[in-house]
Amino acid sequence: MFNVGLIGLGYWGPNLARVLNQTQRCKFVACADLQPQRLEKITRQYPGVQGFASLADMWEKVDAVAIATPISTHFDLAHEALSRGKHVFVEKPLAHTSAKAQQLVDLAKRNKLTLMTGHTFLYSPPVIRVKELIQSGVLGDLNYLSFSRVNLGLYQKDVDVLWDLAVHDISILLYWLGETPTHGTSFGRACVQRDKNDVAFIWLQFPSGVIASIEISWLSPQKMRRTCVAGTQRMVVYDDTEPNEKIKIYDRGVEFTAPQNFGEFQLTYRTGDIVSPHLGNSEPLLTEIEQFIECSETGATPRSSGEFGSNVVRVLEMVTENRTLFKGAMPEALAGSRR
Amino acid sequence: MFNVGLIGLGYWGPNLARVLNQTQRCKFVACADLQPQRLEKITRQYPGVQGFASLADMWEKVDAVAIATPISTHFDLAHEALSRGKHVFVEKPLAHTSAKAQQLVDLAKRNKLTLMTGHTFLYSPPVIRVKELIQSGVLGDLNYLSFSRVNLGLYQKDVDVLWDLAVHDISILLYWLGETPTHGTSFGRACVQRDKNDVAFIWLQFPSGVIASIEISWLSPQKMRRTCVAGTQRMVVYDDTEPNEKIKIYDRGVEFTAPQNFGEFQLTYRTGDIVSPHLGNSEPLLTEIEQFIECSETGATPRSSGEFGSNVVRVLEMVTENRTLFKGAMPEALAGSRR
Amino acid sequence: MFNVGLIGLGYWGPNLARVLNQTQRCKFVACADLQPQRLEKITRQYPGVQGFASLADMWEKVDAVAIATPISTHFDLAHEALSRGKHVFVEKPLAHTSAKAQQLVDLAKRNKLTLMTGHTFLYSPPVIRVKELIQSGVLGDLNYLSFSRVNLGLYQKDVDVLWDLAVHDISILLYWLGETPTHGTSFGRACVQRDKNDVAFIWLQFPSGVIASIEISWLSPQKMRRTCVAGTQRMVVYDDTEPNEKIKIYDRGVEFTAPQNFGEFQLTYRTGDIVSPHLGNSEPLLTEIEQFIECSETGATPRSSGEFGSNVVRVLEMVTENRTLFKGAMPEALAGSRR
Amino acid sequence: MFNVGLIGLGYWGPNLARVLNQTQRCKFVACADLQPQRLEKITRQYPGVQGFASLADMWEKVDAVAIATPISTHFDLAHEALSRGKHVFVEKPLAHTSAKAQQLVDLAKRNKLTLMTGHTFLYSPPVIRVKELIQSGVLGDLNYLSFSRVNLGLYQKDVDVLWDLAVHDISILLYWLGETPTHGTSFGRACVQRDKNDVAFIWLQFPSGVIASIEISWLSPQKMRRTCVAGTQRMVVYDDTEPNEKIKIYDRGVEFTAPQNFGEFQLTYRTGDIVSPHLGNSEPLLTEIEQFIECSETGATPRSSGEFGSNVVRVLEMVTENRTLFKGAMPEALAGSRR
């Protein structure tokens, strides 16, 4: 059985500690953090776990590590772990640039190690169900997707709202569609802190013709976690704030009948039942960590592989670099509407 | 008292007929349409109204006209009416190009006539209340606005979703902000009919720094009529699908405290009461028509003046022409995520 | 084709006028009311209809009448009509006492005429759908039903909240269950007007073992039109305030396993999908009036027959007479909780 | 500082353990349970706590105890603790009969000890806020209250739905109104288990004239935690399933104007703003336990005193004994509606 260590015990680390302790698939043997009181708290809660203030001492104890540190440190830590022959699970996003992410992917491949990114939503029952609906064809061809992930706070210290929140939606999009966008752009504003956007919008164009829009905000009075997937046969609304009906499948559509002899086109609206399927209540984080252990053991590719995580970073990078800045002026002045 | 005629008795015309008959401010004396059965129905319902199959006979009976015909005919009809010295109320959008719209504005000015655009939302109690909240300063400075106006159908024959639905949101935006955007772009897809977008997204940049996003769709399973106005002091959600609580005012915000000696910035979240103000139930369409009559009589400028309507057309034109098409390719191929 | 007259043009009458005019099944030829301006308005709107200030002149013009007058006049008007050989449709409740209602039923039978009560909800798509679900057995055996019909106003002048609002729920209950309660009681309070309850609660016991509770109020800040039907196999919530999902069918239940050798009983919870079936948008009032005409022609028994309406009145009477008044005192004084 | 012990580590006990450990007001030193693995789990989690399989050994270590055992054991355990001079906190309901509850109240008084019942809702921010609104008079006089507390499961082994769920609503009612009902009755059905009601309704009459209805069910497909408080000046809806707007205050009412010379009464409806006040997020259980400690130290009377808890039991007993059973028959047979 694998011995696993956990690096980083800040905001998210304790959640990983809980599932590492809970699963029967591995031994949770070590944890590391620079702050002694964090180490103490975790080692007290999980008596079998040894705490390390220095990573150097931890490596020999573990076969695999989970990394839950600030984003800027992901690359160095993951690189060292892979170099030392350890399987690596890294919280999302995999790295702060796509070049660094790709380096990790290449290194893991070279060393025949599992590299996995913690895109937890890919293991949550509603996201998996929508994936199944898309794959099975019951939605028909997809027309477009629209995401809203907004609330008041929590501001991140090291990244803007795009890298903090849109990373979720982009990972869900890539998983659902099974393709990566050819183009994308973003538009946003830094309202509270200079130079760090707290509200942003993203547009993405996929090779299949599907388009997607993502709205993300740390400055919204209401919390929204809403996704609309519009297919030609059926449409799905996935609302993660709903306690019981997270997914609704609408048997709705519009059919176009080409003009007949008299030249008038016809549109037929179809309205059928709405179904909210029962979803199991398996815990995404536990499922994810168990997949990490299993892939480390068997060499299989995890759903949110390093390569997958690297593609997510590439999209984030693309919409960051290719942001809409409106440098050009409007054709003519718009007078008279300021009242 | 003014004699008013109504041109166009299709989908929307009968609603104007109802309020023209209801108001005591004018005499509703004439209506015109090419289809005899429509004329018959209206003249039977309102015995004092004379029906005209040809406009030529109608002009001498009226001092003012309301035009509710297909968009492509707005310019010609309004131009003729203004040329003949009649005050003109035109349904939105004012014209199919901004140049044509401006021509109407200029002609009305030259002939000292009232030209008004039927942006009915500017006369609805919730939209007026939000305008008051913005003007009074209780929201603080505005950070951003986000609009969603989506549902299944109804497809328009002569315009795409942008000119059909976004015309409402743009009119509301210009009214609320009292400024017109310097830049804008749109992104969309023609899913059901070739070359006519049925889903689209708009981004707008305003001179004050405010940004706005608009989502519009004829292909959404759920109906949404939702607007979020995020100010620095308060935030407002205006949901027109709510029967009773169309507006909610959130006493919420985030304050930024610059780094002190130890270099850590501080964000303070403020959460107070939520107030849903009682709104009168005056009918927007009646208010609007009565403002048209009053301005025709007094020479005052209506809220949704021709100039205002022309600015709305200009923004529609700008985001249509300046649409995001993603002609360029992505920097590097994104391999491996198609599964 | 039958000639039909309408008696009573107050609050509800104009709605009946609209569907009498709309249907092709009968000729709407006459209307009667004591107030001349009401007659004038209806006869102007429907040119083929003759107005009568006195009923005496109307009888010879009609084969059937619809009665929409105050409840206290239902009996006399229906009795006269039936005596003169006319088919009769009476708004709910059929009469102000069950004895009077039964007299009408008997008279109609004797004269071989159709007597129908205007329980419109029995013709509305969601109520019909729940009836089908119950009859088909997919809900299993019914355990209990709970109704809430509350809002602010509108106060009726001649009846209390029980006869005004609960009449709807009782008619729905009798229709769904196909049985009448053996026992019932009510509890309420006259808050605004002396001696007229504006809030009340009803408990009913049915022969099959099913129990039901009804909550009705003119004094509630939120409008509720909610019904829960709990079956052993499935449960249904019918919420008439929902624009799109009026019915939700829950595949949920609890199964009881009797104690095994170790003496512990077992309860198993079952949670499946939630389905909101698409309901047609036929208009209940039109369906109802067309059923009235058809039954008058064929002699068939309408769904909301006079007998059915009489049973509804009997239940209203039962819970009114058998109201819970708490004449006896509590066993011992309850001291000390007033603080 | 007081030494506190916890008796009963089943479903609820661990929650008490958490707050006993969290508070700085007392020392959590001991816990007791018959099952060794429960003891082990708690003592491992809270190293300073000693586990006892037998109560006899525990008494000398503690000044006060919290009891979270099955209801039928409350009396014996609380009685022994009070007899030994310990302050006692008992989970609700205080005892299984009002006589036993009163015995505990008397014993605590005699021994000058604090006896407190764990009616946690009395310490939750929304319940406290409604109490303040009632006390301040802004709601005017109260007309009626309506409670719904329904969901699917969880069945209790030793009590029916009335003692399991209605205990919450009755405690809230007595706290809000500051009076105890003079009369009450209940009506229910045992659907799944013989002789144990899983759905029930309660009616209560208060001395001030206020009436209340409570609906409770273990067999409802939707979860409801809804309370409506209708006052003459304002109305409040408290919905505990709402994440953010648990309380809504409606500035609504109906005013009655007595008949003038022409004999027609007048009702005026008033509709104002809706306010959802911000509520603090203090934890009720922690507040409650800290009040227990403080009252034990100072001799003050806790909000949910033994006497208060005894009154709650008395009401539960009253509506259980005085249940509506419909022994008498209906006046006449109701034929014809079974179809």
Question: Features of this protein?
Answer:
disordered C terminus, 339 residues, 8 helices, alpha/beta, 31% helix, 8-stranded mixed beta sheet, 14 strands, homotetramer
Task: List low-pLDDT spans of chain A.
Answer: 328-339
Order of helices and strands of chain A: EHEHEEHEHEHEHEEEEEEEHH
Rg of chain A, rounded, reads 23 Å
Counted beta strands of chain A? 14
Task: Identify the overall geometry of chain A.
Answer: globular
Our count of helices of chain A gives: 8
- Oligomeric composition of the shown chains: homotetramer
Strand order of the largest sheet of chain A: 8-9-10-7-11-12-13-14
Helix content of chain A: 25-40%
Beta-strand percent range of chain A: 25-35%
Largest sheet, strands/sense/barrel of chain A: 8 strands, mixed
Structural class computed from helices and strand pairing of chain A: alpha/beta
Mean pLDDT of chain A: 92
The chain pair forming the largest interface, with residue counts per chain, is: A-B, 70 and 71 residues
Q: Cα distance, first to last residue of chain A?
A: 72 Å
In words, what does this structure look like?
Four copies of one chain form a homotetramer. Chain A is an alpha/beta fold. Chain A has helices at 13-22, 36-45, 71-83, 98-110, 125-136, 161-177, 284-298, 306-321; strands at 2-7, 26-32, 50-52, 64-67, 87-91, 115-118, 142-152, 183-189, 199-205, 211-217, 219-231, 235-239, 247-257, 266-276. Chain A has an eight-stranded mixed β-sheet with strand order 8-9-10-7-11-12-13-14, with helices on one face. In chain A, helix 4 (98-110) packs antiparallel against helix 8, helix 5 (125-136) runs parallel beside helix 6 and helix 6 (161-177) packs across helix 8 (306-321). Chains in contact: A-B, A-C, A-D, B-C, B-D, C-D. The interface between A and B is large, with 70 and 71 residues. Strand 14 (266-276) of chain A pairs antiparallel with strand 14 (266-276) of chain C, so a sheet runs across the interface.
